[in-house]
Structure formats: structure tokens, C-alpha cells
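User: C-alpha cells for this one?
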Amino acid sequence: MTHAGVPWREEAHRELLTELLGERYAGSGEPRRLAELAEEVSRAFGPGARVRPDLPADVIRAFRQAGIRLSSTRAWELRRVEHPAVEPLLRYKKLYRLYTAHGWSWLRTWVRNGRFRAEYQPGGAASGRWTTNGGGALQIPKVVRRAVRADPGWRLVVADADQMEPRVLAAISRDRGLMEVAGKGGDLYTALSERGFSGDREQAKLALLGAIYGQTSGDGLRNLAALRRRFPAAVGYVDAAARDGEEGRLVRTWLGRTCPPSGADGHTLDEDSGDGPDGAAAGSTAAARARGRFTRNFVVQGSAADWAVVMLAALRQELAGMRAELVFFQHDEVIVHCPAEEAHTVAEAVRQAGARAGEAVFGVTPVRFPFGIATVECYADAAKAPASG
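Assistant:
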């Protein structure tokens, strides 16, 4: 994938930067729109105020002087505040991320001869998910995808694995009911809701994701109880992984990747978050629960990573002898760049690779691993195109 590179139109990228950020001023090189928003933020704090929106400490200090205490400048915390500086500050933060992560400097550094060549780190994350060494390939904003365009006469086949982690949970837990649901065509959450949530897709989705991620408070706890009654093996599988984590034991993915020991993943079981014995006990309990949430998800997310790497290998085999190039991979999404006449064959190759990987990793089960597949000229259009399963 690094050798082939993602087809990237530099001129289109520059045009969208100018459209969103404005022209750059000479000297500092700061885009006009960011400078205007910075002025707007400062004016909101009163005459003579000078606030640097890119400096969290500066923003927190300005709000404190206005009688508002913030612990951070995260968007969710700012949205809870009523102040005229909030709206321009949120817009500034969004554009500033684009400017620093995928702006003109990024374009000069990472795009050469019409190709973006990410430096992948296979299995770079603890779970086995891939990472990249700079370039932010796994976090390409939707707006920037306008610059990802196929060569003339070629197409991008964009394939996104549908509802991957719930399907993996069905396969690794061997829960008969959930495997049956994951073996049907169509939307998994809709099928799940018809089995036990009175047709309420959203509640079914919340229940299943709550089981995987450990979000079990409030309505999540009630939904989890309903899920446990209908799919006991599936919920029991992740519950057991959570208990192992809370008690300091290691857990493994389906193919045997072992989770980091306690403390190596940031969830230290002997963490002291209070003063004195009672505080230490409370800190230890909170850390144990955090570790349990980590191991609960690790067995699922890590097993999904097991499937993904085998799927990539199978896809390369399926593409052998074709002009098509595998150019991008992101957790559960791949992009193949191919001549227009090969697009249909490539889409079928992706489906075959997913099915082969499912059987190779998990054995013969009823679980299907379908893809939503869109054939487009521009990556940004994949989200709008009707996907084929």
C-alpha cells in the first residue's frame, strides 16, 4: 500500500484549504479565516482582550476571568457554556485541526507525484489494529477526502466491513442465537431488535455495543439484562474477559494476541486516587473497573484485528493478476484503485476475501462478514453512493 500510494489530487487539496481556511497572510502564514475567528473570540471577552484560541491555557484563563471555570477546552465541555466566545471558538478549533493535521505543510510533506504514501505500522496498537508513523492516514477528515480521486479511467472501490465487532463477538462466543442473527443478510441491529427488543433498533444497538464496551449504566444496564437473557453465551464471553481484567489476569484474542499486563495499558490496578485507606481502595476499585472495560473490549476488537489482517492477505491473493492496487486500509475499511472495467471483479474479490478470512480465523460458523461497497471516482462520494453488500 505504501508503494502504490493513495491517488491524491494536490490542486484539489489546495483549493479546499483556500475555500475553508482562506488565503495565508505573508510572514506568519496564518490563514485568513483562522485570524478572523481569533479576533472574534478575543472581542467576545471584551474590549482590549487578546486571546490565543490555539492555546488552551489562554482560553481557560479568559473564561475564568469571565467567571466561568473550565477544566479543559474540549468541545463537549465548551458546548455546556453560555458565552459569545463559544461559537467562534468551536469553529476555530475545527478549522485549526484541519490546518495543523492536513494543511499546506502536510501536503508538502506527504504527497508526492499525485500519491499519498502512508507509513503503516501493522499491529501498532495493543489490540493488533494498525497505526501509521505520521501522516494521519487513519484519520482523514471527510472534507479532505475530496482530494482523493482515481486516475482517469480508473475507479476507487471503497469497502467498509458492516458492523464488524458485533459479528466478531458472535463468532468468538459461539452464541447460537447471535450467530444466527449475524448470519442473516441485511442490517444486524434490525435483525437483533426483532429477536428481543420489540423492533427497537436503537435499543438493540445500544445493548450490544454496551456489552462490548462496558457501557452498562442507566438504560444500558436494563438493555444488557435483556441481551443476556437472549444471548447468554455472547454476554458471558465479554463478562468473563472483564472479570479477568479486573482481577489482574491477561486475556487473549481469538488467534492468541495477549493484552498488555496491568499498568502497561494505562489501567493500573493499584492506582491510588484518594487520600488514606478509603481513598486508596476507591482508586483501586475504579482502576480495576477501567481495566475490566479494557479487557472486555480487547477480546472483541483484537479478534476483529485478527480477521482484518487475514482478510488483507486474502484480498491480495484475490487481486493477483489484475491491474488493481490495494492502496488504503483503516481498521475495517479498504480502498482498491483499479481500472473502471475491473471494478465489478474487485468488489467480488473483496467479498470473497471477507468470507475466506472469516472461515480461516473463526472456523466454519453461520456468521457472515459482509461489506458495504461503493465504486466511485472520488473518496468523498463513497458515503453518498448506494453501497452493495
